[in-house]
Design goal:
It contains four helices and nine strands. It is an alpha+beta fold. The chain folds into two domains: 101 residues, Immunoglobulin-like; 30 residues. The protein has a five-stranded antiparallel β-sheet, with no helix packed on it. Strand 8 and strand 9 form a beta hairpin. The longest helix is centred in the C-terminal third of the chain and has 27 residues. This is Copper resistance protein CopC. Keywords: Membrane, Signal, Transmembrane, Transmembrane helix. It comes from Pseudoduganella plicata.
Length: 185
């Protein structure tokens, strides 16, 4: 029996650790593939600037969230008015004072922007006595359009499970046969 335990421990130590297909880390990153080199992953993103303002937006969580800063100082511009146009669709953003972002949650616009591809957007921003037009392109990769890049198929898990279960089962059967032979002898 000691031999069985030693063999099982040796097997456990010798087996490399791998994340199961589709496993995610705390920030939604895929653990079963190479480490991501950029922090945005497959989240659709738009960046643009003018002499006055700088805009960064992310399409996720059922909204297009936009942050706007002054271009010269990088100081956030809060409480302004933001509108976005895409083709024939136009929507006004809601300002979230607690987060400091401008959120667009118009269903028709979000549905149109969720299609994979490059989407030319026109932002109209007004703050105080200043206003500006900012043009940017929202790049929606195919991975972002279908959730986050995979379909969570797990039909191949058994390829790893069979050897892991077969080796201890074989060792247990051999130990039982050996005991049975010792009893007969």
């Amino acid at each position: 029996m000691k031999t069985l335990i030693v063999l099982l421990l040796a097997l456990a130590v010798a087996m490399p650790a791998h994340a199961s297909p589709g496993a995610h880390g705390p920030n939604g990153e895929h653990l079963d593939g190479p480490a991501a080199t950029n922090t945005s992953g497959s989240v659709p993103r738009v960046e643009t600037f003018t002499e006055l303002f700088e805009l960064v937006g992310h399409l996720s969580g059922g909204e297009l969230s936009v942050l706007i800063d002054r271009y010269e100082t990088n100081e956030p511009v809060l409480g302004g008015t933001l509108e976005v146009e895409y083709k024939h669709l136009k929507a006004r953003a809601k300002f979230h004072a607690d987060v400091g972002d401008y959120a667009i949650d118009d269903e028709k616009l979000l549905q149109a922007l969720s299609v994979p591809g490059k989407h030319a957007l026109l932002f109209t921003f007004t703050a105080g006595g200043e206003s500006d037009l900012l043009e940017g392109t929202l790049d929606v990769p195919a991975a972002a359009a279908n959730g986050h890049g995979h379909d969570h198929e797990r039909r191949w898990w058994w390829l790893g499970a069979v050897p892991v279960l077969a080796i201890p089962a074989t060792l247990v059967l051999r130990a039982r046969r050996r005991r049975a032979q010792e009893v007969r002898a």
